[in-house]
Amino acid sequence: MTSLIIVLFALTYVGMALGRIPGLKVDRTGIAMIAAVVLVAVGAMPTGEIVGAIHFPTLLLMGGLMILSARVGAAGFYDAVASWIARQAGRPLRLLALTIAIGGLLSALLVNDIVVFAMTPPLCAGLAARRLDPRPFLFGLAAASNAGSAATLIGNPQNIMIGQVGGVDFWWYSAAASVPAAVALAVSFGCIALVWRKSLSAKPAALVVDAPAIDRRETALCMVGLLALLALFATPLPREISALLVAACLVVSRRLPSRQLLDEIDLPLLLLFAALFVVNAAFARTGLAEEALRGLAAVGLLPDRVSLLAPLALLLSNTIGNVPAVVMILEVWRGIPEGTLIGLAMLSTFAGNLVLIGSLANLIVAERASAGGVHLSLRDHARAGIPITLVSMLLAGLWLWLGGFMAL
User: Fold this and answer.
1) Dihedral Cα 179, 181, 185, 187, nearest 10 deg
2) Which DSSP state fits 203?
3) CA 121, CA 143: separation in Å to the nearest integer?
């Protein structure tokens, strides 16, 4: 039985790295679900322990945040912001700066994957109207979504899980991560401005497209909901209950059917988390992970230092993906120090900027841009993505060390 569990565990993460089963249209969620079902069917994970293996507070928090962001999108806020960026930027460099600053800020508060999904199409349309090369701006949006989302424990799926499973205080983490996130945004702007300087030297055409409509009352209501959520995070109320409470209030509407908002919940992503919880719990039951950790600790290679955690996060995030990597680490390594959890959240997020397939946000931007006729290649992304990642992670590592969060 142990051998079967090891094989299924290994095949699952090979699938995470490949992104799909070759020759079949089975993505990461499908791979993880199949592995989890097989493990339960053969008795490697007793049915009575499935509920305990899945960390439902993480899934509930993510679901609540998705409803909040869906209400923001339904108000026309994302479309209006993307259009405003294109209209206010008299020069391409200013347009890039606005894209990165606003994309980073929204990603810190409204989950980066949802932000880039909503903002990419209208941004593409605005850039086309101004007859500018869209690639540096779209790469800027993707980089900003990763960098900005590192600032909070609700900015991206892996940070949500780290905060929930690790019990990290929301405001304490934000105080520790805001500076590295802001620096990463500045690094993103500098690298893209340098690498794409030729494209960014073009003069934009006048924008004559009508601005998209925005429901100001709906937007104000959403902002009140967001502020209420942040305030609730400072109370003893569990974060997932806070998010669901705000989401329940926002579902009540005279104009928007509740079904429309609930349809915006990313069920494949939640199912991916649930399946990976089961797969990793089955592997943890073998005791091999615990033995491996004891062996690493004995030789001084436990990744509780910046010099070891940073390259590990870079490797795993750009092979199996930062979300599956974090799920695996949290399952097999229990009792992670808080400083290491903070480092894991920041470094695994910054690592997603290395290559186009390094984070889900990058892939969403590429897919949404492709639907608008814009092709984002691996090579084009790597030109700025590699220096952005290496510089951001180096500076974040120094911050973690100098701030006393982790040893060097």
Assistant:
1) 70
2) P
3) 17
Cβ atoms < 10 Å from Cβ of 26: 15
Q: Which residues on neighbouring strands pair with residue 27, listed in sequence order?
A: 20
| Distances 183 to 173, 362, 391 between C-alpha atoms, Å | 16, 20, 10
Tell me the CA distances in angstroms from 67 to 76, 156, 199, 243, 315, one per residue in order.
15, 15, 38, 9, 33
Q: Give residue 338's region: left, alpha or beta (phi > 0; psi -120 to 50).
A: alpha
Q: Which residue has the tokens 């290679």?
A: 301
The pTM for the full model equals 0.83
Torsion sign over Cα 376, 100, 68, 61 = positive
Q: How many CB atoms lie within 10 A of CB 370?
A: 13
In terms of C-beta density within 10 A (0-12 exposed, 13-18 middle, 19 or more buried), how is residue 260 classed?
Answer: middle
Residue 66, amino acid: M
84-104 pLDDT, tens digit per residue, is 777 765 678 888 898 999 999
For tokens 């990463």, the residue is: 184
Summarised one tens digit per residue, pLDDT across range 248-263 is 988 888 888 888 888 8
Mention every residue, 6+ apart, whose C-beta is less than 8 A from residue 349. 146, 147, 149, 150, 155, 156, 158, 159, 322, 359
Q: Closest by alpha carbon to 148, among 105, 177, 118, 210? A: 105
The token pair at 4 is 């079967």
C-alpha count within 13 angstroms, C-beta hemisphere, residue 260: 14
**Considering Cα of 170, then 172, then 177, then 182, what sign does the dihedral take?**
positive
What DSSP string describes 2-26?
HHHHHHHHHHHHHHHHHSB-TTS--
**Residue 209 clears pLDDT 70, i.e. is over it:** no
- Tell the residue number behind the tokens 């802001």, with chain if given: 182
Backbone phi and psi for residue 90, each to the nearest 5 degrees, phi listed first: -75, -20
* Closest alpha carbon to 176 in 152, 200, 192, 197: 152
